Amino acid sequence: MAGTDSSASSRQSSFNSLAKDLELPLEQGCLTIVVLGASGDLAKKKTFPALYHLFEQGFLQSGEVHIVGYARTNLSDDGLRGRIRAYLKGASEEHVSEFLQLIKYVSGSYDSGEGFEKLNKEISDYEMSNNSGSSRRLFYLALPPSVYPSVCKMIRTYCMSPTSRTGWTRVIVEKPFGRDLDSAEELSSQLGELFQEDQLYRIDHYLGKELVQNLIVFREDFGTDGRGGYFDQYGIIRDIIQNHLLQVFCLVAMEKPVSLKPEHIRDEKVKVLQSVNPIKDEEVVLGQYQGYKDDPTVPDDSNTPTFASIVLRVHNERWEGVPFILKAGKALNSRKAEIRVQFKDVPGDIFKCKKQGRNEFVIRLQPSEAMYMKLTVKKPGLEMATEQSELDLSYGMRYQDVKIPEAYERLILDTIRGDQQHFVRRDELKAAWQIFTPLLHNIDAGKLKAVSYKPGSRGPKEADELSEKVGYMQT
Ligand code: NDP
Ligand code: BG6
Predict the structure, then answer these.
(1) What SS3 class is residue 380?
(2) Protein residue closest via CA to atom 2 of ligand 2
(3) Residue 402 needs a FRET pair 20 to 30 A away by CA distance; which of 154, 370, 423, 471 works?
(4) pTM of the full predicted structure?
């Protein structure tokens, strides 16, 4: 049976000891995970596969966990199971079958009591039959944000964990959390009236990646394939930079937190966000790849950026004068997410003419997770000449037997354990929108234009020129 082997129990025990360090309560008993929007893209590609992997590793146990998919689409339990199975190719048939038996499907709308009463009955019946006296209820909203307020209201009205049992109710919400400061604050207030901050888990899957630290370059070799309609409403800044890149930026630029406790870490993130200067128009390059508007769901006159390079400057003692370049784009030459920290040249450098390149520390989040240091070293031999070399920690070579978990696995597990460290707090979200809203409004008003770039290229040449202007050297 999945989850009963020794590696599963040793993983469980290492998580238990971390929980102890963070003073998180360890809980057992009946756990229900409800995936709302179970018929959708995110649910089948990310949420259910992540739940499967947690089950396979023993973090979700048969007899304790119950999974319910909820959406409007008319589906049977087996219909949903068949869709999920299609995304678990290559997994052990025995484990998959056992996992699928934990899953039920309830169909209903997002704004009427009828469906949520049915959902509550499904959960309550399982809890009664489980007989543990506990009721832990996790609701994962894999849904468009437009329905978050009504769905949260329904959960609050019909599906809360009963006070007669021990347990909790937690809600995971997906980005985008609004499209600017005002809309994000409005959404936060609506959800805040229904749930306490410690019940809300605003997910940013970049925070779940193994190597997450600061991010300077983020490249995707695919376009907006099939998501043009959604993408055109948001653009690359709202889709990736304001959330994923900014979160990683925070982790690099923040000061050392008082402890590893979630609130201490999030306090430091808020501080560094509040220290970011207003973005200058001349330190922004926007691009749109040629062919983007061929998508029939994208308007012919769209100015939505599919690429952006933005310089952030942090006004504090540590970072004054240091540019942070956040760069992301669709349809570029490669699919990469990395952080590059370039070290200043030594003042009064005596090697001047002979030296090449610059020392640089690179953290590659994906693909092929790695950390490496590019160093200028003496070229071996009798000449006094220098060249660039590397100290290389490639995870694939160093940790050959270790499977790196998917971001969503880690984050769902954190939610079950009540660890909000890797989730975005309300004041953090507000500070993030404060940084980008003036720029976004100028783009929406057509005051800043996106330049065109070729699909499969490095993006607009103006972006490389901006990096060079602010002091970055291509090594
Ligand atoms: P989908 O468009 O696939 O929607 C999910 C489900 O929601 C659908 O199956 C549908 O279920 C229901 N739905 C769709 N549109 C509406 C609507 N207008 N009103 C009410 N219900 C609707 O979304 P995704 O699965 O792609 O994304 C879900 C959330 O996750 C979104 O917030 C998205 O931004 C976020 N996200 C998605 C990523 C991805 O890779 N897909 C990546 C990161 C974040 P039914 O009709 O059966 O009720
Ligand atoms: C999503 C964005 O949040 O993150 C996508 O909506 C983007 O546009 C994706 O492609 C990137 O995530 P990952 O994990 O594939 O790098």
Answers:
(1) coil
(2) 239
(3) 423
(4) 0.88
